[in-house]
Amino acid sequence: MPKKGNVAWIEFYGTAKQSYRFGKIPEISSRDPRGPDGEVIIGAQFIGSFRTVLCRCRVVVEQVMACCTLDGQVAAKQDEDMAGCTGQYDAIIIGSGFGGLYALYHLRDKMGLSVRAFDGAGGVGGTWWYNRYPGARVDAPSSPFYAYTFSKELVDEWEWTETQTSQASVRAYLEHFAARFDLVKDIQFGTWVTDARYDEAAQRWKIKTDNDETASAQFLICAVGALFVPNMPDYPGINDFVGECYHTGRWPHEKVSFKGKRVGVIGTGSSGIQSIPEIAKEAEHVTVFQRTPQYSLPARNRPLTKAELARFREDWDDLRTSMRRRGGWPFKTNRRRASDYTPEERHAVYEELWEQGGIHLAINSFVGVMADTELNEEVGGFVRGKIREIVQDRETADKLMPDYHFGTKRLILDNGYFETYNRENVTLVDLREDPIEAFTPSSVRTKNGEHPIDILVLATGFDAVSGSMLKLNPKGRAGVSLEQKWRERFENYLGVTIAGFPNLFMIHGPGAPGVFFTMPLGGELTTAWIGDCIRHLREQNLGSVEATEDAEASWDREISEIADRTLYPRTNSWYMGANIPGKPRQFLGHLRGSQYFDRLLEVAEAGYEGLVFEPVCDETAST
Ligand SMILES: Cc1cc2nc3c(=O)[nH]c(=O)nc-3n(C[C@H](O)[C@H](O)[C@H](O)COP(=O)(O)OP(=O)(O)OC[C@H]3O[C@@H](n4cnc5c(N)ncnc54)[C@H](O)[C@@H]3O)c2cc1C
After folding, report:
1. pLDDT digits over 593-603, tens only?
2. Which of 183, 197, 260, 278 could form an SS bridge with 475, CB 3.0 to 4.6 Å?
3. Could you tell me the pTM of the whole model?
4. Predicted confidence (pLDDT) at residue 351 exceeds the cutoff of 60
C-alpha cells in the first residue's frame, strides 16, 4: 500500500494521456471506506482536484498504483544504487495469478530455490482478483479444465460445480491452491514492483517496490498477465462525466448496485457481453455503446454433474495428454472436410454445434474454418442468422451484425446476450454510425442524441499481452529499458526470453501461445521449461542466460508466418495490437500451442539453441 506522504504521479489513460499529480496521500484511518478485502477506497475527500480522475473509477489505492508511472522525485530516487537490498533470493516472481502461483510452487517446492513473489493486488488470483464484474466467467474450455493439471490430488479434491466457471469459483480455487501448497507465506501482496534492473556485474536482478523496499535475485520471473493493464478509452471530455464509473478489469470489491440506475456500457467484447445481460436484469435502463458488433456463441452454462466430474477424474491422465496435444482442448475434434458435405449437411452440423454450445462451433465443425475464407464466411453467416432469429427488432439486429472473419477476435461465450436486446430497458447505440461527441456530467452525447446515465461501465478491454511487461518496464544490459527495446516490435525468443535482459523469463509473453492455449496448463509447461533452463545453468556453473538477437528475429518471422496462414491478421483485433493507438501491429501469440511446447523441448534438447549462457562473473551471483 502507498504510505502516508508518498508523492506519485498518475498517468491516466484518458484524454491526451496526461499525467496528473497525485499529491500527498493522506493518513488512512479506520473510518475510511473499505472493500470486503480490507482495501481502502479512495474517496473524493482524499483527492482534491483529481476527483474526476479517481472517483470515476472509485479506484482502490492499490489499483491506482497499477496505473502509476512514478516520475519526478520518485523516479530520481529510483536511479539510486539499489545496494543493500533487503531480500536476496534465487528467484523473484512478479504476479500471483495462475502463472505466478504455479511458478512459485515449481521453483520453490520442486527445485528447492529460494523464491519471493510480489503482487500489487491484495490477494491471489490475478485476472480473477480484478475482473469481478457481474457475469464474469471463464471463456473456454471450462470446468474442470481451466485449472492446474499437474496434481491428480488437486483434481480429485476440488469440486467444480458449473460447466462455465464463474470468477468467484476460479478465485476460490486459486485461494485453495495457494493455501494447500503453503504459498501465501512467500508472497508479498499489496506491493507493486516499480523498478527492475539487471546488474551486469552481479548477474542479478534488483527490484524496487512502491513501499521503497528493495530485493535482488538471480532470476526474474515475470508472470504479470496477458490481460492485466486496462485499456481506458480516450473519448474527448470523458472526465466531464461525474457519476460512478467502473472499468470491468478493475471492478470494485463491494457490490455495485444498478437498481433504479441508468447505465451506459461502452464496449461489447467479452467483458461487455458477459456483463450486459446481468446489468440489464437490475438496472432501470441500459444503453450499450457498441464499437464493434461481435460474434458470440451460447455458453449454455449448466451445473456440472457429479458423474461428469467423476468421469473426468477417472480419465484425467488421458485428458491432460489430450490437452497438451490438442492446443489446450481436452477432447478429440472432428477432422471433417467441408467439401465432403452438401451445404444442407454443413448447416445441420452448425446447428448441432450451436445447440451444444461453448466453443464447439468454433473448433469442431470442419477443418480449416480459420484459414479458408469461404468456409469461415459460411460459419459467420450461420451465426449472423442466429442473431437475426434471436433479436426481435430488425433495426437492432442490423446493428448487431458482425462483419469481420468469424473467430478472429477473442472468442466470446454468452449467457443470453442477444436475447437481452429484446428487453424494453435496453438500447443499442452503434458508435460507427452514431459516434460519441462529448460527455456531460450526467450523459453521453452522440452525434444523433443525448443518453442520460448515472453509471458508466467501461468494458473496453486491455492493453493485451505486452502491456503489463511494458508497465513494469525492466531495464536490462546497459540500463536499456524494455520500452526502448519494444518501440517498434515486441522482440523476444520463444515468448519467454529477451535479448539484452539476461535471466529474465516471461510467462505468457508476446510470442508464446498465451490466450490461444488453456492458460493454466500453458503456464505449467512454460514454467517447467524455465525451471529446466535454470537447472541447466546452475549445473554447468553458468551465471546468466539470454536470447540472441538472431534467434529473436527468426522467432518473430515464425510467429508471423504461422499467423499469416490464417485469417487472424486480417482483422483489427487486440491479438494484432489494433485496440491501442500507436501500438506496434504484430500478431501477439503463437497459434500452434502443442507444437510450440514441442519446440520448447527441442530447444532444450539441442543445448538451448538460440540462447547464450555467460560464465559466472561473480561467485556471489549463484548463491
Ligand atoms: C474475463 C476473462 C476470462 C478469461 N477466460 C479464460 C479462459 O477461459 N481460458 C484461458 O485460458 N484464459 C482465460 N482468460 C485469460 C486469463 O487472463 C488467464 O487465463 C490467466 O488467469 C492469466 O494468469 P497470469 O498469472 O498469467 O496473469 P494474471 O492473472 O493477469 O496475473 C498477473 C498479476 O501480476 C500482477 N502484477 C502485474 N504487474 C505487477 C507489478 N509491476 N508489480 C506487482 N504485481 C504486478 C497483477 O496485479 C496480477 O495479479 C480470461 C481472462 C479474462 C479477463
Report:
1. 999 999 999 99
2. 197
3. 0.88
4. yes
Q: How far apart, in whole angstroms, are the C-alpha atoms of residue 84 and residue 213?
A: 10
Closest ligand 1 atom to Cα of 508: 26
Question: Could you tell which of 63, 105, 127 is best to mutate to test the pocket of ligand 1, judged by most ligand atoms within 8 Å of the CB?
Answer: 127
Which residues sit opposite 207 in a β-bridge? 196, 215
**447 pLDDT more than 80:** yes
Ligand 1 center–CA 541 separation, angstroms: 34
Number of the ligand 1 atom closest to the C-alpha atom of 227 = 17
Closest-lying ligand 1 atom to the alpha carbon of residue 99: 25
Pocket test for ligand 1, best of 142, 228, 363, 460 (most atoms within 8 A of CB): 228
Determine contact, residues 592/327, Cβ cutoff 8 Å. yes
Of 47, 3, 43, 594, the C-alpha closest to 325 is 594
Indicate the pLDDT class of residue 620, thresholds 50, 70 and 90.
low
Helix (H, G, I), strand (E, B) or coil at 555: helix
Tell me how far apart the 2 most distant CA atoms of the chain are, in Å: 73
Question: Which protein residue's CA is at the shortest distance from atom 14 of ligand 1?
Answer: 138
What number does CATH give the domain 87-229+466-622?
3.50.50.60
Let me know the angle formed at the C-alpha of 543 by 537 and 548, rounded to the nearest 5 degrees: 80
Portions of the chain given CATH number 3.50.50.60: 87-229+466-622
